[in-house]
Amino acid sequence: MVASAGLPNDAGSGPNAHASDTRHPASSAKHSRSRTTIPTQSGKWILGKTIGAGSMGKVKLARKEDGTEQAACKIIPRGSTDEGHQSRADKERADHSKEIRTAREAAIGTLLNHPHICGLRDVVRTNYHWYMLFEFVNGGQMLDYIISHGKLKEKQARKFSRQIASALDYCHRNSIVHRDLKIENILISKTGDIKIIDFGLSNLFSPRSHLKTFCGSLYFAAPELLQARAYTGPEVDVWSFGIVLYVLVCGKVPFDDQSMPALHAKIKKGAVDYPSWLSSGITP
């Protein structure tokens, strides 16, 4: 559910505001007693420490005012943060594109309901920010786990692969393509199950049409994306899924090179070196 809040002037303190928001959050942070509170239909949420950040915005830990629940609040500014080298027309185009992408993420997030996809609890839009409240996954990132423990045992990797496959199948059966599946976008819950996050580049697809936007991380990107070929959608997720599985059992990406052109060439060629210690059930 998306709640839209109209904020009077810059302060965002009027009676119709759905989030106590300012145009210049850095200055408001100087007041020790100030805090960002987000009222929703499920209750008030209070924002706490930053637990993540990216090019689109940041993620803060949120808790219900009554202390009964925690959530991860993704905060996305509704405007360009880099105005120095952009013309007004370029800035307006960038802001419009960002707004469409964020609105799409919110809309798709409200449609998703799967045990291995991080659930979207609520969405609040103010004049200057989007606030997306996701379920809080308290087990950490898959990337951190692999960095700490190295490659996974094949039995454990099979469990995770089944869960990822189930989530992707659910998305694709509902005409949704993720387009940014990578090891960084997989979390592990305290119960040892995975949760896929970040549908910021997701889109709807149809077998009767094609998508043309290059999306995702280079190391996990499908060859057709590097070749600027139109694609239906699911095939780029399946390729990324294969890269993720390789990382799980090998502890590294299958395609790597310090030279960008060489890396592109390796991905387009698609020749994978499978370590000899992998079981025959994993290698093709």
Question: Might you state the CATH topology name of the largest domain?
Answer: Phosphorylase Kinase, domain 1
> Which blocks of ≥5 consecutive residues have pLDDT under 50?
1-32
Name the CATH class of the largest domain: Alpha Beta
3D shape? globular
Q: What is the CATH H-level superfamily of the largest domain? A: Phosphorylase Kinase, domain 1
- Overall mean pLDDT stands at 85
Largest sheet entry: 7 strands, mixed
Short description, anyone?
With 284 residues, this protein is α+β, with helices and mostly antiparallel strands.
Outline the secondary-structure elements.
Blueprint: E1 2-4, H1 25-28, E2 37-40, E3 43-53, E4 58-64, E5 70-77, H2 88-111, E6 120-125, E7 129-135, H3 142-149, H4 154-173, E8 176-177, E9 186-188, E10 194-196, E11 203-204, H5 223-226, H6 234-250, H7 260-269
Parallel strand pairs: 1-6
Antiparallel strand pairs: 2-3, 3-4, 4-5, 5-7, 6-7, 8-11, 9-10
Pfam families: Pkinase
Biased composition (Basic and acidic residues): 80-97
Keywords: ATP-binding, Kinase, Nucleotide-binding, Serine/threonine-protein kinase, Transferase
